[in-house]
Design a protein that fits this description.
Blueprint lengths: L2 H22 L4 H25 L5 H5 L7 H11 L20 H9 L3 H10 L1 H6 L6 H26 L10 H22 L14 H21 L10 H31 L1 H23 L1 H9 L13 H16 L7
């Protein structure tokens, strides 16, 4: 699949949904969400599935020949597969040289060195066959990454669309894009470093890094949008009136409680039994407080924590000063403002 087709598909995939949402989002939000997003997933899945069926060209896997087979033998097998035999005339005729396509000649000329065969494993047949200016591993890596980046951008555009606020899955955007970015970084690391390993002795069972990585990438592109579409949507926030109603109900319950506290405090002081129980409770609290404040260990610990309460040189402790300031600030809340 050419880079032009991929770029065209990516452009259409970005522009058409953007224009659609821009024109119809405010009026057809729910109706568009029901049919538009599954259609995008379907189109992208079909495109990714088509990419899975189009396996990377690999003459060693197709002809089932070892990676170290001489170039002349490979040429003879290709000519025989094309129906030209070995390039010789039949029935005692004169041998006629058969010219091969320029890109295939370029590939065969590059396969004469062991280093190029290692690049074949790392970067694939298409890179060696079509990238004429490439002369080093860095050149081939840039050539391969160019097509891979376009594929990642296309899938990122689909994921951004599927995790938009119109789809109700915007909270999953960071996760799915993070998976895609990690996959891209892992692919770059594998192609740049891990794949640069010596070829095994058994050249019939060489692990084709480029072909297998491309297959894994296509599987990821197929599954990730499908899984994103099945993620649970986030609940949309309601109007502000919905949050005001519980607050008003809480205030309505708090006002009677405040009035009840005011009246019960007065009733406690009028009832002898309740007054005695209140005095006993406050006496126990004072005794516990005096015991805590009088303990030297507690005083030192509070001083180390910046909560000293002991008076020193006529000055109040920090804890007592903080409590006094808190009381003063609370008093201001009970002062009725003077009206105009």
């Amino acid at each position: 699949m050419s880079v032009i087709n991929t770029l065209l598909f990516t452009s259409l995939l970005i522009l058409i949904p953007w224009l659609y949402i821009h024109n119809h989002f405010h009026n057809l939000h729910k109706r568009a969400s029901l049919g538009f997003f599954p259609s995008i997933v379907l189109l992208h899945s079909l495109y990714s599935l088509y990419g899975l069926t189009q396996r990377s060209p690999n003459l060693f896997s197709r002809l089932r020949i070892p990676l170290t087979l001489p170039v002349e033998r490979i040429r003879a097998l290709l000519l025989s597969e094309a129906g030209f035999g070995a390039g010789s005339g039949g029935d005692g005729g004169v041998a006629v040289p058969v010219s091969m396509p320029p890109d295939l000649e370029l590939l065969l000329s590059r396969l004469k060195t062991d280093e190029s065969r290692g690049w074949f494993v790392r970067f694939g047949q298409r890179a060696l066959q079509t990238c004429a200016p490439c002369t080093s591993a860095g050149d081939y890596a840039l050539f391969v990454f160019a097509g891979a980046i376009l594929a990642y951008v296309r899938t990122a555009a689909v994921l951004l669309l599927l995790t938009s606020s119109a789809n109700g899955r915007d909270r999953w955007r960071g996760y799915v894009l993070g998976v895609l970015v990690c996959a891209a970084l892992a692919e770059g690391y594998v192609l740049a470093s891990v794949s640069a390993t010596p070829l095994p002795k058994d050249t019939m069972r060489v692990f084709m890094w480029h072909d297998n990585i491309r297959l894994a990438r296509q599987v990821l592109f197929l599954l990730l949008p499908l899984l994103t579409q099945f993620l649970p949507p986030s609940e949309q926030p309601g109007p502000p009136s919905m949050s005001l109603a519980p607050a008003l109900a809480h205030l309505e319950r708090s006002l009677p409680r405040a009035h009840m506290l005011k009246y019960t405090r007065a009733a406690v002081m009028r009832q002898p039994e309740l007054r005695e129980r209140a005095v006993r409770w406050w006496a126990r609290e004072k005794k516990a407080g005096d015991a805590g404040r009088g303990d030297e260990g507690v005083r030192r610990a509070a001083l180390k924590m910046g909560l000293g309460y002991a008076d020193a040189e006529g000055e109040e402790g920090k804890l007592r000063m903080s409590a006094r300031m808190a009381i003063e600030s609370l008093k201001a809340l009970f002062i009725t403002p003077v009206g105009p």
